[in-house]
Design goal:
By secondary structure, this protein is of the alpha+beta class. Helix content is 50%, strand content 14%. The longest helix has 19 residues, at 67-85.
């Protein structure tokens, strides 16, 4: 198993791109991007709304005005944008330095070991 020190030696920019159905155990220093996070937040925002459309719209505006919710939504969409920008094609994906990626491996330590092995043979 690859420890934290070895993970940091690989690169300090570690992203885990996944969703609610593909859970992974990420190291604490990794950025976890859940592609379905915006949908999850939007679903929460729409729960318990009044039946009257005008009251419901006002309630959603109030909820979106909450700084914490706004920051969560912004971060969630930024994560999706970043994953799209670097060309993530499948999930789960373990990405190091926005350059090396292992797809379909839920064991992050194993994915990191594969990336390290590749980097050692392709300096």
């Amino acid at each position: 198993m690859l420890g934290s020190r070895a993970c940091l030696a690989l690169g300090t920019d570690i992203w885990i791109v996944t969703d609610q159905q593909h859970r992974v155990h990420a190291p604490s220093h990794a950025r976890v991007i859940e592609l379905d996070a915006p949908t999850q937040i939007e679903t929460t925002l729409s729960q318990g709304l009044p039946a009257n459309p005008s009251d419901a719209a006002a309630e959603v505006r109030d909820r979106l005005g909450n700084r914490a919710v706004s920051q969560q939504l912004t971060a969630a969409y930024q994560g999706v944008t970043d994953a799209w920008r670097i060309g993530i094609a499948k999930i789960p994906a373990v990405v190091v330095d926005q350059r090396y990626v292992v797809y379909g491996e839920p064991d992050v330590a194993h994915a990191m070991a594969r990336i390290q092995a590749y980097r050692e043979t392709h300096p």
